[in-house]
Design goal:
The protein is α+β, with helices and mostly antiparallel strands. It has helices at residues 2-11, 15-28, 31-40, 47-54, 58-70, 90-103; strands at 45-46, 74-79, 82-87. The longest helix is centred in the first third of the chain and has 14 residues, at 15-28.
Length: 107
C-alpha cells in the first residue's frame, strides 16, 4: 500500500531534504505570503495584480514573491516587462487547502 512508500521516504530523507522542507514551511509562515498563494490558486497573475489584491506596495510584494520563488513554491514567467507568478504545482495547492480544511477540525 501507499503507507509503506511514505514510511520508506520518511526513513530515507537526507538532511538536505529536511532543510528544503523546513525552508518551504518558513516561507509559508507569513500571512501576506499565504494571501498571495491563495490569490494564485486560481491561476497566474502579474505582480501589480497581486500587490493590489493583498494590499501591499509593489516592492513588498516583489520581496514576498522572490522568497516564495526561491524555495520553489512559486514559478515566474516574464512577459514583456512584467513578471507573472503562479503556484509551482498541485502539491503546494494541496498543502494550503489541507491547512484550510484543518481549521475546521476539532479535537
Amino acid at each position: 500500500g501507499g503507507k509503506s512508500v511514505v514510511s520508506d521516504k520518511l526513513n530515507n530523507l537526507s538532511f538536505e531534504d529536511l532543510e528544503k522542507i523546513s525552508s518551504e514551511f518558513k516561507a509559508l509562515s507569513d500571512t501576506s505570503r499565504i494571501k498571495i498563494i491563495l490569490f494564485l490558486l486560481d491561476g497566474e497573475k502579474s505582480v501589480n495584480a497581486i500587490a493590489e489584491k493583498v494590499n501591499l506596495t509593489q516592492p513588498a510584494t516583489s520581496h514576498h514573491l522572490r522568497v516564495l520563488k526561491n524555495v520553489g513554491i512559486l514559478k515566474m514567467t516574464r512577459i514583456a516587462n512584467e513578471n507573472y507568478y503562479r503556484v509551482a504545482d498541485e502539491h503546494i495547492s494541496a498543502i494550503i487547502k489541507t491547512a484550510i480544511t484543518h481549521l475546521s477540525c476539532e479535537d
